[in-house]
Design a protein that fits this description.
By secondary structure, this protein is of the alpha/beta class. It has helices at 27-39, 53-56, 111-120, 132-150, 178-199, 214-223, 237-249, 286-298, 318-336, 356-360, 371-378; strands at 14-19, 44-48, 66-68, 96-99, 105-108, 125-130, 157-162, 202-207, 227-229, 255-260, 272-274, 282-283, 302-306, 342-347, 350-355. The strands form four sheets. The chain has a seven-stranded mixed beta sheet with strand order 3-2-1-6-7-14-15, sandwiched between helices. A four-stranded parallel beta sheet has the order 9-10-8-13, with helices on both faces. Strands 4-5 form a two-stranded antiparallel sheet.
Length: 386
């Protein structure tokens, strides 16, 4: 059901597309759908290079920070991974990093300046494709634009499209990129079964997901992992070690453990690699820690595989291609029918529109009573609970 109020649709002649945050399979499908659906309505379409850098730092682009998205430019891109207009997880315009004369760093809000650049290019609306961070920025821009309009300025309409392999955005059943990530992770774990069985080893597979365990849970279940460690369930490794020992006693000499990068030990802290200025903290390293400790507890040979950015690359699955196309077309329909400040969301069998404020105020974590978790427990999968 459509949860958002509408006003008569103002005239649109030119829209922009931006892809921000980490890349995800299916981005190009969204870009193609937005471009074709908009041009079929006689709207011009442009792409902003690398998030909002194309507008905030145009001098860095010899050919211009804003590129025309013609029908020819988006031909044959649906099956391609990545994004043809580039993306970045740096340069948040609401907290833009600048270096002081003394070498230290500060953050400034360049939102008003960014909206001026949209005006300079004659852009009436923005389709912002991203995860919680990028859509939070889009929501902020929308609010600032409304304030400008109240003062007599030009208003930029904003529509968000949910993109993240982590599947951690509220109010949408799925985000595009998630299905491809789970499919690839499952295939990798499938391949590890043969070497784990041959050597009688414990294989620990670390997957992405940030602070949500959707990838680890679904990939682990689909590939028959024996233990799955997710951020929603603080873990202890003694129960995992006991599960491994029990498998040894039953003559199953190997075990597969899937661990989400944001998993947290009961008596410890989340594993963080580091954090750069203007970026979110980088998670990682938990797989090595889990493997080392399980080796100590079990006396078995352990190995770690970190799938990392492999989960972001490659050609999207057919599900993600179709979802990306649906989202892109729905974003254009939203603009045509007067929506503003909303995110398109999958609510099978339809796509609905929800306020950006509702979609970005919290992360969608794995509910411990969801059917997937209940199924995993019925299958005897260990979550490291004491």
């Amino acid at each position: 059901m459509d949860q958002t109020p509408r006003s008569p649709a103002p005239s649109i002649s030119r829209i922009a597309v931006s892809t921000g945050g980490g890349d995800a399979p299916g981005l190009n499908a969204v870009i193609r759908a937005v471009t074709l659906a908009a041009r079929n309505r006689d709207w011009d379409v442009v792409g902003i290079r690398d998030g909002f850098y194309g507008l905030l730092a145009p001098d860095e682009y010899p050919d211009g920070g804003v590129i025309d998205l013609s029908r020819e430019a988006v031909r044959g891109i649906v099956h391609q991974g990545g994004t043809i207009i580039g993306t970045t997880n740096r340069g948040n315009p609401t907290a833009y990093p600048v270096q002081r004369a003394d070498g230290t760093w500060d953050e400034i809000d360049r939102s008003e300046e960014l909206l001026d650049r949209f005006d300079d290019h004659g852009i009436d609306a923005l389709v912002s494709i991203g995860g919680d961070g990028s859509l939070g920025i889009a929501h902020h821009l929308h609010q600032v634009s409304l304030e400008r309009a109240a003062r007599g300025g030009r208003h930029l309409r904003v529509i968000g499209v949910p993109k993240t392999i982590d599947n951690d955005l509220e109010h949408t059943t799925s985000t595009f990129g998630f299905d491809t990530a789970v499919d690839f992770a499952s295939d990798c774990v499938d391949r590890l079964f043969s070497t784990a069985t041959s050597h009688g080893r414990v294989m620990v597979v670390e997957v992405m997901g940030r602070y949500a365990g959707w990838i680890a849970l679904n990939a682990g279940m689909s590939s028959g992992a024996h233990a799955i460690l997710i951020p929603e369930v603080p873990y202890a490794l003694e129960p995992v070690a006991e599960m491994i020992a029990e498998r040894d006693r039953s003559d199953s000499k190997f075990s597969i453990v899937v661990v989400a990068e944001g998993a947290v030990p009961i008596d410890g802290e989340r594993s963080i690699i580091g954090q750069s200025v203007g970026q979110a903290e980088r998670l990682g390293g938990v797989g090595e820690k889990v493997a080392a400790r399980l080796g100590e507890l079990t006396g078995k040979e352990t190995r770690t595989v970190v799938l990392g950015h492999l989960l972001r690359g490659g050609s999207p699955t057919s599900f993600d291609r179709i979802l990306g196309l649906r989202f892109g077309a729905a974003a254009v329909r939203a603009l045509e029918t007067g929506h503003d400040g909303v995110m398109v969301a999958l609510a099978p069998p339809t796509v609905q529109y929800v306020p950006l404020a509702d979609a970005t105020h919290r992360q969608k974590l794995v509910p411990l009573d969801c059917d997937t978790m209940l199924t995993a427990r019925d299958l005897g999968i260990c979550f490291g609970e004491r």
